[in-house]
Design a protein that fits this description.
Helix content is about 30%, strand content about 20%. A hairpin with a 4-residue loop joins β2 and β3 (about 35-40). The strands form three sheets. An eight-stranded mixed sheet has the order 6-5-7-8-12-13-4-14, sandwiched between helices. It is globular. The protein is of the alpha+beta class and about 325 residues long.
């Protein structure tokens, strides 16, 4: 059976499912890799799936024109964020001005993208999620808002932002923020880990992957495992179990696909008390990105470019495939 992009290299953006007019595409998650398979009996050969796939047809990427580090001016917004709260501050400003924001949210046991038109939902977006999330179902909705004259802000992983960019043909009302990404594992692995701890993913309301510089899983406010790091966090930080495509990601480089790129300002030379509160790294690629920054209630500082890149290897290359990755999957499957 044919695949939309190269075998085992699917990023799991789900855009091909939505663009196919005859529903000839289905996604298979084997936990080692994703694949978007095409049913030859249904396929009409329109190639729409290929045209929007961020792996098969990557959109243009641009070198940053502006580098900064900073945080949300509102201390409560900063405190709720994994880093400096820049994303939250921009999202809040965007909805106050009548825009629509799409970002990832954990709800009913799933990591899916949700629409926000008010501050209550925007606040729920705060925090890092080290898992492969699903934007399935939002592409057509985003395009409809754009065509109706609404401004839409999408915040997600670089591959997801690229898919939105392709699907909407870089619409003038579309604003994109991508996140500096290490790579992402299948949500099935998280479910398996929690099951071993006697926890059901469907049975919890909130899940946290980190609190500022402390990386560890917590469910409904309680740490899941004893010790400095739990096994899931260790495997994530060591790049053991990302899906196969992450190790050859074309978006892990200095040229970015979005208007703004946000991450952690690792290696910051600002005072330690500020670092403990969380500092975001900001890469601005164009005028749209500048407008997002200017409209938000944020504090900005200069940043050492060389140090910022050296402390964020994803701005130079994808995560390296761990030598024990195959052994890991052989044992868990």
């Amino acid at each position: 059976m044919k695949t939309v992009c190269e075998l085992n290299q699917c990023a799991g953006c789900m855009a091909c499912l939505e663009v196919c007019p005859v529903k000839a595409v289905h996604i298979q998650d084997s936990i080692r890799f994703y694949n978007a398979f095409i049913d030859p009996d249904r396929c009409t050969g329109c190639h729409r799936c290929h045209s929007i796939c961020p792996v098969h047809t990557p959109p243009g990427q641009t070198e940053p024109i502006l580098w900064k580090q900073g945080w949300a001016s509102d201390s409560t917004v900063r405190k709720a964020a994994a880093s400096g709260g820049i994303a939250s501050a921009i999202e809040m400003s965007f909805v106050r001005q009548g825009g629509v924001v799409y970002s990832c949210l954990f709800q009913a046991g799933k990591f899916q993208f949700k629409k926000a038109e008010n501050l209550e939902i925007v606040r729920q977006f705060a925090g890092s999620q080290y898992i492969k999330s699903s934007p399935e179902g939002i592409y057509t909705e985003i395009l409809r808002y754009l065509r109706d004259g609404r401004k839409v802000l999408f915040v997600g992983l670089p591959c997801q932002a690229a898919a939105v960019k392709n699907f909407t043909k870089s619409h003038k009302n579309l604003y994109l923020i991508d996140l500096v990404c290490h790579g992402t594992p299948s949500p099935v692995l998280l479910d398996m880990f929690l099951h071993d701890q006697g926890i059901s993913l469907n049975g919890i309301r909130r899940i946290s992957f980190r609190r500022k510089n402390q990386f560890r899983l917590a469910a409904d406010g309680r740490d899941i495992a004893a010790g400095v790091w739990d096994a899931y966090t260790t495997a994530f930080c060591d790049a053991v179990f990302y899906t196969e495509s992450c190790y050859s990601c074309r978006y892990a480089q200095i040229h970015r696909v979005s208007d703004l790129t946000l991450g952690d300002s690792w290696g910051s030379q600002l005072p330690m008390p500020q670092q403990k509160l969380g500092i975001s790294l900001i890469l601005c690629q164009n005028k749209k990105g500048k407008n997002l920054l200017l409209s938000a209630e944020i504090h900005l500082e200069e940043v050492d470019l060389e140090k910022a890149v050296s402390c964020n290897h994803q701005l130079q290359h994808p995560s390296f495939r761990h030598r024990k990755r195959d052994r890991f999957f052989d044992e868990v499957e």
